Amino acid sequence: MIEIRDVTRAYGTFKALDAASLSIGEGEFFSLLGPSGCGKTTLLRMIAGFDNPTSGSILVDGQPMDGIPANRRPTNMVFQSYAIFPHLNVEQNVAYGLKRRNLEAAEEKRRVEEALAQVSLSGLGKRRATELSGGQRQRVALARALVMRPKVLLLDEPLSALDKKLREQMQVELRHLQQTVGITFVLVTHDQYEALAMSDRIAVMFGGRIAQVAAPKEIYQKPVNRQVADFLGGMNFVKADLVEEEAQAIVVDTAGFGRIRTEKPAAYRSDGGNATLGIRPERLRVLWDDETASHEVAGRVIDRHYFGEITHLIVEVPGFEKPLSVTETNSFGADDIPVGAPIRLAYDPDALVALAD
Amino acid sequence: MTAVAERIAEIGTLRSRHKSWMRSESAQGLALISPTLIFAMVMLVVPILVVIAHSFWTQNYLTIDRTFTLEQYRIALTEPIYRDLLLRSLWISLVVSAATVILAYPIAYFISFHGGRHKSLWLFLITIPFWTSYLLRVMSWKVVLGFNGVLNSALLGMGIISEPSPAFLYNTTAVVITLAHAWAAFAILPIFVSLEKVDRTLIEAATDLGDNPLRSFLRVTLPLSIPGVVSAILIVMIPTVGDFITPKMVGGKDGVMIATAIQAQFGKGANWPLGAALSVATMIVVSAMAGATVLLLRGMARLAR
Fold first, then answer.
1. ipTM, 2 decimals?
2. Residue B203 distance to chain A (closest CA, Å)
3. pLDDT for B47-82, tens place per residue?
4. Pairing between strand B63-65 and B58-60?
5. Which candidate, A319, B20, B228, B272, has a CA 20 to 30 Å from the CA of A100?
6. pLDDT tens figures, B189-223
């Protein structure tokens, strides 16, 4: 549905986007994830037509978009600030784009009501834009774009202004809505949980470059490099010595985990004998009493952070240059483990992933 | 016994209520603005009251007869000369404010949307004409529009006319041109301010929904800048109705406005009550016209959606 071919956007010598290539399928919920300034919004605005690539080309539905202004593109956008027209009421806002299509009054009214129903705003059509709550404004922005029946819906951090509870609710609703209408959604976000929860696929971006494109689970479990691993949540980095490099795998020695054979990431480049492994905090499991595991390490709790449903334990393990961070659900009393207590941790060697730098 | 106690308690609450008002924010606010408030009352409200009072009296040579009468209003509103002058003044001020706003809007739009980093420089440049006195600015229009003026010389030089035309000066058009120029900055500023307040994302949203630049201007930018246009019109219209210097300097016989007649009554005519009645009548008519214009513009903005 969308082809991004070698797109660069330069401002003077600064490249906001550097030779990005991407292919987004029809009906896909695709997220552009990255920290602020990574070029994700620039890319979205270029798809919408508010900005033009310095080089490279963008195709939507097979049509090259070069020179086509934003008002003639088959895309619609939900703006971060929602951009609700303050001089119009909800109905007029939603009908704004339809006016140009010369629909019959009855048909226009039907489509506006359908769009309002899709975002659960039926009956609020006569409200003025200034009388709406943040969540309602967001829904109006969504309805106003959906009513146009675009080929692609672009969402620029649509949930960032909402509070946590509402945001989580809207994540579910947005995902559900996308599956109902079947339109390709491209979402820009800096919230990794949002991207993981909603997307079919995610592109993680840093400094104008696309670091990795994959499904949420793969991005989370097999990040290609340290940056991606770090951005998508907690990660324990472990230094390792390279023993053997094969086509698909590498074998390394670590001080704490011993010899590990693991999949070689695509971006991996051998730089002499060093390698970095990573393991997510929740992949380390606390061993209680005399429970044993085939792979375990022993250490001492040096700090504990309570988060309600989970507890973060910081565990010092001899042989590791840095303490390990462990996430444990509180069902078994991890929140009661005293600081200073000796502890044993089980791990699965497959959860250790090799990371490019 | 209890009744007395209640009474005492009541007085207590009254006293504390009085005290709390003295300490309240509104009382403090009033105290804070009282010097300017008193000044404004003395310099603005009192003269108006004096004028209104005079308009109900009559004058006999040098003595004022203070018996209440509506005679002056009858003269002011029915004598053809005053009626014509008032209508002409209203017409001129209407044309001037329309012309000024139409000319000011693109300038304000340019500064707001394309001024870039130099917005304050542009605004500063607009105020430069105010560094000279208004009289000099009117005089320079005489130089431009006069029989041997810049405009005539230029047209002669280009061979468009064969002899100097007297048509540019001493008429209504000259008054309109001069006033429109004089009030331009006062129209640009409020329009600029309201354009600055238009969220640029809204224009992007309109574009995203299929509007070309002209349509998004008509459907979003213009309706949202109407408050600025309304204040610009009011700022220009209200003072120009009563303008005295401009018609006197460049208006000639055709450009005479109501202020000239009012001045004559307070001066040579020695009929203060008639002058006062003309003033009050003008004030009321101008207020009505300003109100009507505001309503009309709001209605048009609503239709534009």
1. 0.85
2. 9
3. 999 999 988 988 877 788 888 888 888 888 888 989
4. antiparallel
5. B228
6. 999 999 999 999 999 999 999 999 999 999 999 99
Q: Cβ contacts of residue A74 below 8 Å, gap of 6+?
A: A60, A61, A63, A150, A151, A152
Rounded mean pLDDT, A108-128: 91
Structure tokens at B300: 């048009």
pTM of the model: 0.82
Measured CA to CA, the distance from residue B93 to residue B241 in angstroms comes to 5
For residue B210, the chain A residues in CB contact (below 8 A) are: 71-72, 97, 100-101, 148
* Confidence (pLDDT) at B148: 83
**Within a 13 Å sphere around the CA of A232, how many CA atoms are in the beta-carbon half?**
30
Nearest CA to CA, how far is A150 from chain B (Å)? 10
* Domain covering A2-223 in this structure, CATH number: 3.40.50.300
Which fold is adopted by the domain A227-355?
A: OB fold (Dihydrolipoamide Acetyltransferase, E2P) (2.40.50)
CA distance A273 to A291: 36
Give the separation between CA A346 and CA A207, rounded to whole angstroms. Answer: 37
CA-nearest of B110, B98, B56, B101 to B281 is B56
Q: How far is B220 from chain A (nearest CA, A)?
A: 8
Same structural domain for residues B273 and B146?
yes
CA angle, residues A178, A183, A188, in degrees to nearest 5:
70
| Residue in chain B lying closest to A86 (CA) | B224
Domain ranges within chain A, ordered by starting residue: 2-223, 227-355
Is there a contact between B85 and B169 (Cβ–Cβ < 8 Å)?
Answer: no
Q: What does the block give as tokens for B78?
A: 């029915």
List residues of A whose CB lies inside 8 A of any B CB: 48, 50, 69-72, 75-77, 79, 81, 83, 85-88, 92, 96-97, 100-101, 144-145, 148
Distance CA A65, CA A155 (A): 19
pLDDT in tens, A281-323: 999 989 988 888 888 888 999 999 999 889 999 999 988 888 9
